[in-house]
Amino acid sequence: MELDEYVAARGKALLRTAYLLCGDRHLAEDLVQEVLATVHRRRGLEDIEHLDAYLRSAVVRQFLSWRRRRSGNEALLLPGREPAPQPGPADAHAERDAIWSELARLPRQQRAVLVLRYYEDLPDERIGELIGCAAATVRVHASRALATLRDRGVHRADEERARR
Hints:
CATH superfamily of the largest domain: Winged helix-like DNA-binding domain superfamily/Winged helix DNA-binding domain
Low-confidence stretches: 68-75
Helix content: over 70%
Order of helices and strands: HHHHHHH
Largest sheet: none
Mean pLDDT: 79
Number of helices: 7
Strand content: under 5%
Number of domains: 2
């Protein structure tokens, strides 16, 4: 399969996975572009048997090792800044933004585990292969990430109640 054909057929799915990992559309595009360029330069897509799995693995590994070059005016997500509560349908949007903010604060491996487990619906063994650890370590990452998210949610709720 040629690179153009693959990107037309499966590029959006790969981009969605990258977006869920890094939380920013532009960074996700850069991540996918970098992975596709590297794979194309080194091997070419024709030589890869399970192309989707191979590229998803490459995106995850690149995300975990990526050293972002941020300038002074760039910020992925600003922790601690939540939009003011809005009545009606905006509440769901605000809650989603708060969840993204909390996900962005997780360590990269914990975030990768949550994305691969709950978005890609992969088993722990496969996630371990993708991020380079044992299935038991995947479960530890997931447990710690979920506990952290729960703790942060409880603290926020307590702070909001104290302000009222």
